[in-house]
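hey can u check if this looks right to u? its 361 residues, i copy pasted from the old doc so theres a chance i mangled smth
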Amino acid sequence: MVRAAVLSSVGTPLDVTEIDLPEPGHGQVRVRLAAAGVCHSDLSLSNGTLRQPVPAVLGHEGAGTVVSVGEGVEGHAPGDPVVLNWAPSCGECHFCAALGEPWLCVNANAATTVPYARTKEGDDLYPGLSSAVFAEETVVSARSVLPLPAGVPLTEAALLGCAVLTGYGAVHHSAKVRSGESVAVFGAGGVGLAAVQSARLAGAETVIAVDVSPEKEELARAAGASEFVVASETTAKEIRKLTGGLGADVAVECVGRAATIHTAWNSTRRGGRTTVVGIGGKEEQVTLSALEIFHFARTLTGCVYGNCDPARDLPVLAGHVREGRLDLGALVTDRIELDGIPAAFDAMLAGRGGRALVVFG
């Protein structure tokens, strides 16, 4: 039995309780978690914005140590430090095999709908986003397990599993930020702060962080923002003033709201690029006129998991961490235990803090 935070039904508080976690089967790996990040996607799963079979153990951003491996698993052994990949590619579908776009794999979340454990009452439990890292231990597909490169602290490495890969990829793979460009990042949570750091890595000259909370300014500047704007009806005008009257070359939207997406679009120059990272509900409708699409010649792009291939990008990010160019600790504002996750959800809803990190003893 291991302790876990269980979502019994959509819209109800998480219950920290014991669950019955089986030994890994064929092609599976059991991992003891060192830490798990609390991501907005977990909140979206808990409140029904994203679909999730229940009861479930949420959490998808995690790092830990291999406990045991199932039959047929190669390349992983007990004691190995690892980062979990919540969207493992199958390597066989059209997006993986033909297009080389594993972030769009149609089978990435297949494990989400398959029970992986049982409640102490004997009911089936499902793994949130195939990972279920809001628990002391989890069992996942071997495809979900990535070796942690040397020189990266195991606890902070959890952030590499989602926030940092997403923020980094949005900047480098989706928006393709170039040296000397200006970048506006909307939302200074975990992903947004990672995007700010990544814009600096890309050589952006001006990095503008935007958030509804004035208290986020210190966090944003510590991550590398050269400017900070409190979100308002005049945000787009303020960003144009900070960019010589033109608008930002790139906007990265990490909120997932129609109004914020439209503001990000309006904040870019003619020919500018807007990458949408935030996950919104289907009721969030973005409206653009045909004339403005023609006149401004801007690009609006969706972005899944930072358009990353974790196996390729994780070693690159680890190199930045080792060389001091990427500060994982700067993204973390709260270190909590399992029973602190509901409060972390409340903080996200209120726009407080960066990333909350569940740390296991």
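The two ends are 16 Å apart (CA to CA).
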